From TrEMBL:
Superkingdom: Bacteria
One protein family per Pfam: DSBA
Keyword Isomerase: yes
Entry protein name: Disulfide isomerase/thiol-disulfide oxidase
GO molecular function: isomerase activity; oxidoreductase activity
Entry annotated with the keyword Isomerase: yes
Keywords: Isomerase, Signal
InterPro entries tied to this protein: DSBA-like_thioredoxin_dom, ScsC_N, TAT_signal, Thiol:disulfide_interchange, Thioredoxin-like_sf, Thioredoxin_domain
PANTHER family from the UniProt entry: THIOL:DISULFIDE INTERCHANGE PROTEIN DSBC, THIOL:DISULFIDE INTERCHANGE PROTEIN DSBC-RELATED
Signal peptide span: 1-31
Domain (Thioredoxin): residue spans on this chain: 72-264
Length: 264
């Protein structure tokens, strides 16, 4: 997966575990668990003793630290999943109802909806394209709504603008012709290169270049980005299955098919 935002650095997690462990071990055995220890009331000698206890405990039983880290990770994952479910529910209509500007693979009226957020410059997005074509050819009750989002810099913005401009010019067919040209192209993306690819794809290159910086293209890309942020997307590609499950990364054909079946 092409990542957008960095993960939490591990040292911060380690510091949190050690601090929590020190506080817990300093509390009397009969102290109410709901009351946190007030570390500001410890004397320097008491703090030194706490550090010694922690060192001895970790030296004699290293699993204390690994168990604490595992517990924190589990808690963080659960919180993340809850947040994802809440976001999907809040934006259920946005994810299940295609916009007039959305390109759709498969049957437009299908009951099963997969939304793919992708960047035309993302190598993983390019790699998964054949699997998406295969899935929609095999499953006639499946539609894949494609939402292009430029997250990898200026080259991504140029190619994303060209794709949306192609859709505005000629609808679904023009979009997918331009998509095939862009996502199989290894030349550095420039406006002139987009003009050349548009001509190869049977489109009006001058109109496409003009529309790329127009208000319609800007509004569509902004709406895609807003929805991506709203559901907590942090990389491309990201797939959303029937507004119930999010799977980030270049999932292979078998895993995509399994997720589709599970979310019907």
């Amino acid at each position: 997966m092409t990542s957008i935002s960095p993960r939490l650095p591990r040292p911060r997690l380690l510091h949190a575990v050690l601090a929590a462990g020190a506080m817990a071990m300093a509390m009397p055995a009969n102290a109410p668990r709901a009351v946190a220890a007030d570390t500001t009331s410890f004397t320097p000698a008491q703090r030194q003793e706490i550090v010694g206890i922690m060192r001895d405990a970790l030296k004699n039983d290293p699993t204390i630290l690994s168990d604490a880290i595992a517990a924190l990770r589990s808690s963080a994952n659960a919180a993340q999943q809850n947040a994802a479910r809440s976001a999907l529910e809040s934006h259920r209509s946005d994810l299940l109802t295609p916009n007039a500007s959305d390109a759709i693979l498969g049957t437009a009226t299908a009951r099963t909806t997969v939304v793919e957020f992708y960047d035309p410059r993302c190598p993983y997005c390019r790699k998964v394209l054949p699997d998406l074509d295969r899935l929609t050819h095999e499953d006639h009750d499946l539609r894949i709504i494609e939402k292009v989002i430029p997250v990898l810099g200026q080259g991504s913005l140029i190619t994303s603008q060209a794709l949306v401009a192609a859709f505005i010019q000629g609808g679904q067919d023009a979009y997918f012709r331009m998509q095939r040209a862009i996502m199989s192209d290894s030349t550095a993306p420039t406006v002139e290169r987009m003009r050349a690819l548009a001509t190869q794809s049977g489109l009006n290159a001058t109109t496409l270049a003009t529309d790329m910086n127009g208000p319609k293209v800007t509004a569509i890309l902004q709406a895609n980005m807003d929805l991506a942020r709203a559901i907590g997307l942090d990389g491309t590609p990201t797939f959303v299955f029937n507004a119930r499950q999010i799977i980030p990364g270049a999932v292979d054909y078998d895993d995509l098919k399994k997720a589709i079946a599970q979310n019907r």
